[in-house]
Amino acid sequence: MTVVTMVKYGQLPAVRLTAPDGAQATVALFGGHLLSWQTADGKEHLFCSAKSALDGSKAIRGGVPVIFPQFNARGDGQRHGFARTSLWRLDDSGADDGRAWAEFVLTQSDLATPVAQAWPHAFELRLRFTVGGSALDLLCTVRNTGAHAFPFGVALHTYFDVGRLEAAAIEGLQHCRYTDHHLATLEQQEPALRFTEKTDRLYQAPPALTLRTADGALRLEQQGYSEWVVWNPGAADAAALADMADDEYLHFVCIEPARVDQQLLAPDAQWVGRHRISR
Ligand SMILES: O=P(O)(O)OC[C@H]1O[C@H](O)[C@H](O)[C@@H](O)[C@@H]1O
């Protein structure tokens, strides 16, 4: 069976991965960016803005932006790093145990010259997507292929389609400490996090969460990362985003396995982050 086919998403070349049971994932080479994940029942789980650029001129607003080598402004480089606006390569693909997988790679030699000059470190960033049944696995590996240590932060900035924001709730965060967008450190008291206003929180990661939506629940698990970032811009911030329609914030929540602080990776060392999303 053919596991991958090349498709176009907007103007972006993308790889469509199809498991024997019909579950699918579509990944743009621009950003190594997961655009769509459908379980075998045909249900789409990711949100993508109708106003997103899909021509490589700007990061995609939706799906799973890959944040590397810095989270937000926690570093000297561009906000959220260059991985989401660089051109990745499909390295390999296959099928195991009834699931389909594809692995994408980005190295220093793939970067545009000014980007490589601004971050002059020999690295290899790999992302393997495995799809089938009711689960999606994202395996992220960062390797230092050079002679000097480099600092990095990393996150998978997943936009989940929640149907209606008022129906969305995240369980698993009660009694967890978090930092909010005012930089206050607080402890969550509520059993479930709901979205009634702008939410931008950084939680010390419990390993697993449940996202409840209008029509089901997803279990989110992570290993190797150290935080969960939870973001919904709310009405005012959404209106200020040129690549998001004013009311689209009512349909998604971002939940991101992350390692936000810059940490050093020694020569020849490798960091691995695992993320599983399942129904
Ligand atoms: O607009 P972007 O650069 O894609 O960032 C979108 C959002 O990313 C993260 O979730 C941050 O915690 C937010 O503060 C930020 O607004």
Automatic annotation (TrEMBL):
It catalyses: alpha-D-glucose 6-phosphate = beta-D-glucose 6-phosphate. The keyword Cell division does not apply. Pfam families: Aldose_epim (PF01263). Its EC number is 5.1.3.15. The keyword Isomerase applies. The active site is at H157, E256. Keywords: Isomerase. CDD domains: D-hex-6-P-epi_like. It is an enzyme of class 5 (isomerase). GO terms for biological process: carbohydrate metabolic process. GO terms for cellular component: cytoplasm. InterPro entries: Aldose_1/G6P_1-epimerase, G6P_1-epimerase, Gal_mutarotase_sf_dom, GH-type_carb-bd. One of its GO terms (molecular function) is glucose-6-phosphate 1-epimerase activity. Belongs to the glucose-6-phosphate 1-epimerase family. This is Putative glucose-6-phosphate 1-epimerase. The lineage of its organism: Bacteria, Pseudomonadati, Pseudomonadota, Betaproteobacteria, Burkholderiales.
